[in-house]
Amino acid sequence: MTATSYTDKSVSSGLVYYYFVQTVCLDEGLEIKSAFTENSNENFGFLLSAPAEVEVDDGSSSEKVILVWSKAIGSQHKNFTYKIYVSSSQEDLYSELMSGIEGIENKNGYLEYEIDKYPYFKISTENSEGLESSQSFAASPMPAAPQNVTASKTSFMNSDLVPNSNNIYPVKITWEKPSQDEPAGYYVYRSAKTGSGFRKLNENPVTETEFIDDSSESLTKVGVPYFYKVVSINSLGQGKKGNNPQTEYDDAVLAGGDAFKNIKCLGYGALTRDQWFREYNKTCMSSQKKLTLMHKPNDTDKLGSESVEGTISGTLKYTAKIAGLGAEIKMPYTNYADFWINDNEQLGVYFCFESGSTDTTSNMSGNGKMSGTVKCSGMYPGEAYYGNLEIKSGAAGGGTYGVKTFDLEGNEILPSGTVDWLVGEEGR
């Protein structure tokens, strides 16, 4: 080109461009190029644009709000002021309320300005030449947080719900709308931690005051209780006010006892009978490993009595004696517990074998049967029944266990049903 100006029509909004010019001439048919122009403070250009982010926070009173917005593109090069527009309806035209606003920069680099409360706001950018950008997207005051966010704990079941791939039934989360606001909907979040790692569970806002978490992905794990946060949103889908799981956790821990029972927003699904027995069996196997007599190689060496203590609480007693042409082994539990929920002592005990016994009678060949029922409390209350289990060569070798599960209030979830003797033997 031979002109001394050029209009760049290929630019995109949101970017700052730097321009360089090079002289080109022909000398006896050869194209000779000069060096590029030197960098300066004037060789940049950008489209005048509205703030890309706008939100409305609470103000100093119920009649005030604080507008928060991102600086317009090019603010590092030019001084801008901003215009504020308001409307009583999302669809109506927005009228100019104030101009020449500079805002106060907060610690995050955004601009803030306190103003009278209106239903809807937009902001535009104005440069020193009086040129104005288009208006930003709309922003509206955010509704207050929902109240009484409560997640079910191994209790919510009905015939329409099925367990996920980890043998866990869904969790039901319920809440009440904030008393002073009418949210357009809610987003539900879940995390294994109180203050971070929250993942949004619903792509579209929930308009009711309940949600079923039936996630099947590996994030939903057996033995891991989850904290649920519910955030209210306005008609524009904006919102960040929700219940505070950290506060609930701190209050429950301070009160003492099994904290997980007192944290409303903490929830986890009931287990299938098979999975319940697998989790129960972890404490059973852990307790038996502490015994010495039952692991002796010779049968006569197994005779006698001993008692071991749970890592957390309680005892397991072992007594083996000759009975007829065989042996009789009694193994009663009393408030025995080895593990904390999710390895967190502050949450409480995972499985506590409150009472019951796993008893065995066998002949000289080590074949026989078992009896007894163990009653459990903790994260997954229930009962394990041994009366239908066969013993072959001194170990479980056929038959079934019986399993019945309860919620934390003692209500029956799954009635007594059978579990194959191989369940819990996986990986051994």
Q: Which features would summarize this protein structure in a list?
A:
about 425 residues; five-stranded antiparallel beta sheet; 2 helices; 31 strands
Distance N to C terminus = 80 Å
Structural class: mainly beta
Rg result: 34 Å
Figure out the total of helices.
Answer: 2
Percent in strands: 35-45%
Low-confidence stretches: none
Description:
This protein has helices spanning 245-255, 273-289, and strands at 17-18, 22-27, 30-36, 44-45, 54-58, 64-69, 81-87, 95-101, 104-105, 111-116, 120-126, 147-151, 171-176, 185-191, 199-200, 210-213, 226-233, 241-242, 266-267, 304-309, 313-323, 326-330, 333-337, 351-356, 359-362, 368-371, 373-378, 382-385, 389-392, 395-406, 412-420. It is mainly β. The strands form seven sheets. Strands 20, 21, 22, 23, 24, 25, 26, 27, 28, 29, 30 and 31 form a twelve-stranded antiparallel sheet that branches. Strands 14, 15, 17, 18 and 19 form a five-stranded antiparallel sheet that branches. Strand 25 and strand 26 form a beta hairpin. The longest helix is centred in the middle third of the chain and has 17 residues, at 273-289. It is elongated and about 115 Å long. It starts with 16 loop residues before the first strand and ends in an 8-residue tail after the last strand.
